[in-house]
Amino acid sequence: MVRYFIDNFRSAFDNKMKKNNVFVVIAAYNEERSITRVIKGLKKHGYRNIVVVDDGSKDSTFEIISKSGATALQHFINRGQGASLKTGIDYALMKGADYIVTFDADGQHHPEDIERLLKPVMNGECEAALGSRFLKKDSNTPFLRRLVLKMGVLVVWILYGIKLTDSHNGFRVFSRTAAHRINITSDRMEHASQIVEEIHSRRIPYKEVPVTITYSDYSKQKGQRGWNSVKIGFRMLFRKLTH
Question: Is the overall model pTM greater than 0.90, yes or no?
Fold first, then answer.
């Protein structure tokens, strides 16, 4: 019985220590309606190193972050999600992060999925774990969004030669080594494709991991429109032709 309690205590202590080396990086723009809930959810699951980059919001997002107990960083002008993630990842590396999670601010991602993404990276199976909403049979992705995302998968395969099931999922885990090697220079939404390109060109071992994405009316409103997706595709093509 004593051995049972010792083992359980040791397991809980080890999990806490591992989570102390995990930094969750969130890019936020005008997310006053959701960011408190997102931060509280992460804290409830034991994550304390939460870095939120306010990307020049026009609402009270930055004030809410500052009072939440998370680390609040701020861009004074809106630079884009890619630039915000770059700022947050650089900060996490500076603070000694061993593992970095990129997590959305609109409530689509589930904190309980982080451990599933962390596991293959912590076990040395890969250096980057990429969340996929299409590896789960119960994916509730709306039809039009599913169609656009699948087109994105095809474009990524044509441009970079990488076969993924979900090429534009912002839920990821990087080891410290991978985070150092991936250089995000695309400020806006095409950064997601650049990350895939960097993983491929720098031969960073990766693995797709099933995650749940929750589509609320709010997250659908905040999501990419069809025309924006087309523009991202053109930017990806331009980047490929000019690099």
Answer: no
Of residues 27, 73, 26, 22, the one with CA closest to residue 48: 22
- The Cα 93–Cα 89 span in angstroms is 6
Task: Give the architecture (CATH level 2) of 2-141+168-182+204-222.
Answer: Alpha-Beta Complex (3.90)
How does strand 99-104 pair with strand 172-175? antiparallel
pLDDT digit string, tens, across residues 182-201? 999 988 888 888 899 899 99
Which of 178, 204, 179, 22 has the alpha carbon at shortest distance from 115? 22
Q: What is the pLDDT of residues 203-223, one digit of tens each?
A: 999 999 999 998 876 655 665
Cβ atoms of 21 and 53 within 8 Å: the answer is no
Higher pLDDT, 195 or 227: 195
Would you say 22 and 99 are in contact if contact means Cβ atoms under 8 Å apart? yes
Domain ranges of the chain: 2-141+168-182+204-222
Strands (E), 60-211: 71-75, 99-104, 128-132, 172-175, 206-210
